[in-house]
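Q: Fold this one first, please.
A: Sequence and structure below.
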Amino acid sequence: MAGNAGDYDSSEIRVLEGLEPVRLRPGMYIGSTGYDGLHHLIKEIADNSIDEAIAGYANKIEITILKDGGVRVDDNGRGIPVDIHPKTKKSTLETVLTVLHAGGKFGDGGYKVSSGLHGVGSSVVNALSTHMIAEVYRDGKTHHIEFDTGKPTTELQITKGSPRESGTSITFYPDPTIFKETTTFDYNWVSNYARHQAYLTKGILIVVNDERTNAHESFYFEGGIKSYVKRLNNGKEVLSDDIFYVEKQIGDAEVEIALQYNDTFAEIMKPFANNVLTPDGGMHVVGFRTGLNRTINDYARKNGLLKEKEENLTADDIKEGLTAVILVKLPDPQFEGQTKNKLGNPEVRGYVDKVMTEYFGYYLEENPAIAKKIVSKATLAARARKAARAARDNVIRKGAFEGLNLPSKLADCSSRNREDCELFIVEGNSAAGSAKEGRNPQIQAILPLRGKVLNTERARLDKMLANQELVSLIKGLGVGIGDQFNIEGLRYDKIIFMTDADVDGLHIATLLMTFFFRYMPKVIEDGHVYLAKPPLFGLIKGTGNTRKIDYLYDEVALENKLTEKIEERKQNGTKIDETQERFKQAGYTAQQRFKGLGEMDAKQLWETTMDPENRILVKVHIEDAEKADAVFTKLMGDQVDLRKNFIQAGAASVNLDDLDF
């Protein structure tokens, strides 16, 4: 029965005022209220200081994580204006910190170039903080005001004297009722953010402090994005030590590009617009690729490096081994969404294309030895691409959910609902046999691996597709490979590496991670890759039908368990014979050490490593792609000294369970 329209009136309409919308729907403004959203607060405040530096008014920014859980961001810029705003009739400082879309990023009177899109940053941080303190230093005076959850708790207080000639200091404390997952800031995140911003803004000093640990770092790069490219290629064999660099003003925009080729098969592309990373690319990346591809092909034709009947080098050929940083600065960036993952300004495509075509063309003409190496590398990539085409056509599975062309050794699951399905990649036929017998066949599939898979860090696609173990894996996953990769085809929600808990097992897991990181990073990024954690020990109590096993996953857990049981027996009056083995003192009849998965029977493997109710899975995630790239280069590359030094430096303290990339 329809309701009475008279029951629905103006009293049913809620009007949100001030910063209420931010507290009600924080995810709309900062993306999430988890780890990423928490650290986005720092970015929103610090980006305002970066804008001062880009505009030429600041040369030092300091970010401090405080002992009491807050963060303070200081700069030596002009200082936020403090005079009375004509519209709000309040100080401009209070207006900027309490009114959405109030700031110097609208109209012609503020910043010519800024990283802020909607001008909501400072006020959003204020709304999501239990407490905020703002101080502005201007005209020899200190202007001080405080807020709680976005509402002012003091008047603007003005005192004579200031710690510096000009600048702004913002201190905030995230609200735990909003950020329920965590309010603890990660120093590594802050350090990485500061380093990147220092690379992107030549001549700026960014200091990071952590009062909790007394950690301290300073970042200053006179070379700007040239220094960034050098760092990204650290540990790789470059085609030339020289780095191509150009910085040009076109109309009201500025284009800055640095690039260098190395001898690997992967591309590292870092595109920025107004110092904001745009991981999904956009028009600046389209313009860059168009200009780069045209210039290299034109040079190759002109200098006889491509024969008349040879087809042009493709974008995939040319990007092999490329490391590039693209930075465009423009007054009105059109980002897609508040998270700014993609740049949409159509005019930027032409700007970047023009700069690349003209100035990279000059660079190739003036450096023929480097140009020849670049073309030669791309030509080899083209040959490998053609060789891989036929093999890839055989690998990419058609009709994934109908089970067509699946690898013969895959024991698939019966469910066709991807969200329920799991693929266990298992080391060795013995362990795979136990896994097949013990699994839940409706939702768990088993793919055995024979020995160690190919190290894909140093292999092109054509060589990789000649490896039967990897071909079976690609077929089973259903996502394709190379330019035909499509995450929508993934057949399993969880892909679980199940290897022995020894050096060989960890090596196999690392080889698998290398494959996914280099050829299927989207599978990791979307949270589908896991490491199974099998137990190392079994403590056995009783025999026959009364037999019970306590499974322990490392030596520390074993010792803690034994100590706990021994103390418990002592308290119960049991006399302990110190000459007995510790497991017997603890009341167990035997201790078993599992040297490998193959030593477990189907029941044990299910109970410890496969049963969703009891197992321990470690999700693999890419926390810092640059760090991950560097680690894989060192661990899996062909420079032995780098790998040796890396292992020696970390051997004493490394815990493989804690390795986050």
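Q: Good. Now the second chain.
A: Here it is, same layout.
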Amino acid sequence: MLSVSWLLIAVPLASFFVLMLAGKRADAWGHWVGVAASSVAAIVGIGSLIEMLGRAAEDRAESVHLYTWLSGGEFSVDLGLLIDPLSITFVLLITIVGTLIHVYSVAYMEHDPRRRMFFAYLNLFIAAMLLLVTADSYLMLFVGWEGVGLASYLLIGFWNHKPEYATAANKAFVVNRVGDVGLIVAMGLMFAHFGSVGFDEVLGGAHGASEAVLTAIGLSLLLAATGKSAQFPLQSWLGDAMAGPTPVSALIHAATMVTAGVYLVVRSGAIYEGAPDARLVVAIVGAITLMMGALIGTAKDDIKKALAASTMSQIGYMMLAAGLGPIGYAFAIFHLVTHGFFKAGMFLGAGSVMHGMKDQVDMRRFGALRSAMVITWVTFGLGWLAILGIPPFSGYWSKDKIIEAAFVGEGWQPWVFGLTALIGAGITAFYMSRLFFMTFHGKARWTDEQHPHESPLLMTIPMMILAVGSAFLGMFLGIGGRFQHWLEPVVGEHPHEEPVLSVPVLTTLTLVLVAAGAVLAYVMYWRKDVPTEAPAPSLAVLAARNDMFQDSVNRAVFQTPGTHLTRTLVYADATLVDGAVNKQATGIAALGRDACARTRS
């Protein structure tokens, strides 16, 4: 299977073109073509995994040459794929979760007249994301990176007949393009210093490069990662991106697109090993974002935006782990995998709630849905327990490892990063319990027009499968350090280091904080009546509801000065440059007229 791994990208990409070119003739069956394409990619991915497991650990990397793109003299650019434990982990996450979301979407988008195009865009996204994680060079990665940006723009703005949805798609596209500048600059620096942008040449030669060069490259890659993974300071697009259909939120903003930045940092580990300052900035960005996302999540009443804030925070945990270096690389990817299952399951659960509540998203209008939507309640509940990190559910095996790793080290770093991760776990327990209790427990707060009911099997079966992953995947991968050993050929082997607080103490503190957060949410949003209208907020709550005023900051720092700068440049161009040229032309014309007049006289 490894030799035909190009099918991973070719099949969903071919499906995209078939669905777009077939037009309305494919409306009746196009969605099943989309499901089949994603399923074939999943089968190829599973087959590649089986073949890889049959090899020795040191032989689990396969380079697949595709073709020579540019060739001139001694210079050539070859395009190919790299299939190794890191890339195949992402392949399986993208294709398996992606296929489940495809199946769910068949029912969720049943009455949409453009369902065929929706599945075409889904397949385009799957193809681009698979190219991103299997590329053997930063150039090929960049092609997938931009393809993901295009597909996400099309999916977020799928219902672009609503102006606010079109605006959300534009915002996501523009903010991500800001981050993309970092990746372009990084590739330029790589080519200047290594003569190549291939992983082998760049990562293999990183040990011989100066720290200044590696720091510049590492910070540039981080800028790209903050845009794609919605990390501070480029996180403002993620909440608005919930405007897209709920399956889009599950696919792009839980299991795939937002994880691309984490992949980029971990794949570039050799660069960050030679640039400790850049790696420290990665950890700082992750710590800021995990706390910012958690605080924002405490104040959101829109169920999808609350989950989006949670995604931002959990990706922050992964970036923090990646910034810790070799001790954290495997844990970052481990939490990425478990998060992909439980967060995708909760997003699909939110879509199920919306399906049964006439597209209502305000949790203050929910309550007591447990009895009307039993399957949704159970599957969502397993995801809730997983993200809280309750043993033995998946989050306990992955997120707690990040907390332990954050407490490793000397000086101020283990205390700052460790306490941030620890406190973030308590806040996570509060806002996710708030979401769960406001939606499924307490008193019913819906109107007489709403008649909550369970979703059809095509929606609930994917939710059940994801719930099984939420419950048991972390334990399966975590026992005996199985997942860490799996990634060792890529991220390296790192000896165990004891945190500044013992593991039993950290586990106890984490569970106490998680329990405290859940109990507080129980008292406030289950035992007490929840008002259907949000009370007047304090300044802190107002800040959280408005995403810490990030849009206001962006307008004040970037948009408004940028507008004035543009207008100034246009005025200068019109008055100075064009004015000078026009006056020169006018003067020459006057001289010509004067010469003609003299000739006639």
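Q: Anything worth noting on the second one?
A: DSSP finds 23 helices and two strands in the chain.
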